[in-house]
Amino acid sequence: MTETAAPDLAADLPTAGTDDRLPWYRRIFGPLARSPLGLRRRILLIFTLGAVGLSAFLAFTTYTLTQSNVVQQRDDAAVDSARRNAQIVQSILRGEPQSSQTAKVALEDLGVQRPLIWYDQEFSVGNGQYQKEALPQVLVDRVINDAVPARMIVAVDGELNVVVGWPLPNQSAYFEFSSLNEVENTLDSVRLSLLLGGLITTLLGVAVGTFAAGRAVRPVGVAAQAAKAIAGGRLDTRLEPTEDPDLSVLATSFNDMAAALQQRVERDARFASDVSHELRSPLMTLAASVEVMEARRDEMPERAQAALDLLHGDVTRFQGLVEDLLEISRFDAGAIRLNLEELLAAEFVRQAIAVSSLPESKVTVSERAEMVIIRGDRRRLARVVANLIDNARLHGGSTQPDVSIKEINPPDEPVSHIHIAVEDHGPGVPVDERHLVFERFARGGSAGRRMSSDGAGLGLSLADEHVRMHGGRVWVEDRSDGEPGARFVIELAAVEIDE
Amino acid sequence: MGTRILAVEDDERIRSAVKLALEDEGWIVDEAESGEIAIELFAQTTPDVVLIDIMLPGIDGFELCRTIRRTSDVPVVMVTARNDTHDIVAGLEAGADDYLTKPFAAKELSARIRALLRRIRPSAQGHVRLSFGDLELIPEEGKVLRNGTEVHLTKTEFRLLCELAESPGKVFSRESLLDKVWGYDYFGDGRLVDVHVRRLRTKVEIDPANPRHVVTVRGLGYRLQT
């Protein structure tokens, strides 16, 4: 049985959106364009190329026209002058004595500077430089032999001349050189001004291009700022309506998207908030009932006691979860208002530890940090500390964690920040998971183990959100003494009390 | 002669569970499932403390508190399911002395109630009458007179005034007032103090917006100016 190759379906499908051909500027500049040109640069490039091209075209056209014009004029003038002078020579040569010398003198009197007369099979030279050698043979043949007037442009000693030849009767001929110096000078200055003009035009083009590019790109920048604001949590950011029909599409669709996003987020936050509130009522009943049972624990048989312990533990955990969920939903809805106060850092941390799940944990405070004030919401920050302690209790091995407060600044500088560190003796957090542990409901590896046993994995992410709201940071690193274990650090801005 | 609590809560299960837990703590508990019933029971049972859930059908918790306050200065504890600032401040301004958020432990509530029922400790010199401006403070009778007429303060408002009057001119921080009047530790809610000062001012100051006696010291706390 023959096997037919499976048809290559992919070959028939159009690739959505991607164009294999390079963008136009890449094709032009090829390997020179190493990185994609931005919109602004492309517009500028187009303007510059346009300015250069236009001014070059204009300059070229102008120059060419001017050149031909000027040259033509000179030409005509030279021909005219030569013709008249030829007639003069002719008339002189008819008279007595018939000698080219007379003619030469007559011409000289007229002020003709570069004549050559062919008479009696020989050249009479008027001006030393312009000898018969300077005459192109082609011209000579044409005028003398073919008896046809002709002209040509030759260079004599580096200077361009128009040489005009007029045939005279009796096989004579008159040649006259006319300098093209003036023409050359004129053309030179025209060339210079055109170059200058072209340069200025190009520069103007670049300037206009920069301006145009800036203006064109501005709406993009505005939209980018708005998007950034939304991503940062200001969900009510909108673009201003514009009359520009091309841009209004962008503004309208952006605003629609932002409105939809805001609705979504607020709905989600409201949902989480409503659910949590609803959960508080049955939790109240559960908590109160468990309390009643706890009061009679000694009267219970062993199995009932065990069941009660489990029940109590989970009801407590459930309460914590509901509180955490509520707080997180407040964050998402942007509804957190911090109750900021000035707190003595050391006193605050000691109090926070005292109400945590490991109140006996040792707190070490550096000398300078004893006299330091932080600005914070005392209950929320206490929750942060409590979360870190809980974390240490669950994953930090069997011994108490060590808590320390220290300023980050060297002794000669004023205090700007403090580090509140909670170090445990557990297995620590591997480097590639140090980011994960602060995520909501993070799973996977030891992050998963850290998360799944207690507190439903919101504690650390709440700690992160709270600390960030205070303008600080929280992270995890290795213990400072090199032993195995995690070191969670909260960094907060602080000021020393001045006496 | 046990201490009577009137618990106003519309959720039947919560009501039953809370009653059980509070009775374990030694309180006598009367239940009311709505504001209207609570008003009736209040007159009948004359409780020592009233516990009111904000979310009630019919008359809401704030309204009930205001109604009670018209005729009585009995300690009132609001129970909120939402610890939004608005609810807490509204409850305190309606006349509550303290608040708790559901779910709470009966032990915690007991501690709050005991703090609210504490008698004013006699100072070292015994009870001292204190006069300042148009006010006269008579701690052993629990009375404040203004130009001779009695001003009706709740027990907590009175205790707050007495604590400030203990050392006139001395600045008391919110923390210390929370401790002395409400029995809270470091993490008490400063809003309790702030709203009670506001309430006190409306009752004893000629111009509550520009207080002459109960004065705020910015960043530090409050003091009594005589």
Report what the structure shows:
By secondary structure, chain A is of the alpha+beta class. Helix content of chain A is 53%, strand content 16%. Chain A has helices spanning 9-12, 24-29, 39-94, 100-110, 137-145, 181-231, 245-295, 302-332, 345-354, 378-395, 445-452, 459-469; strands at residues 115-119, 122-125, 150-156, 159-168, 172-179, 340-344, 362-365, 372-377, 402-407, 417-423, 473-478, 486-496. In chain A, strands 6, 7, 8, 9, 10, 11 and 12 form a 7-stranded mixed beta sheet that branches. In chain A, helix 10 packs antiparallel against helix 12 (459-469). Chain A is rod-shaped, with a radius of gyration of 49 Å. Mean pLDDT of chain A is 84; it is low at 1-12. By secondary structure, chain B is of the alpha/beta class. Chain B is built from 8 helices and 11 strands. In chain B, helix 3 links the parallel strand 3 and strand 4 (76-80). In chain B, helix 7 crosses helix 8 (190-204). The longest helix of chain B is centred in the C-terminal third of the chain and has 15 residues, at 190-204. The model of chain B has no long low-confidence stretch (mean pLDDT 91). Classes of the chains: A alpha+beta (499), B alpha/beta (226). At the A-B interface, helix 7, helix 9 and helix 10 of A face helix 1 of B.
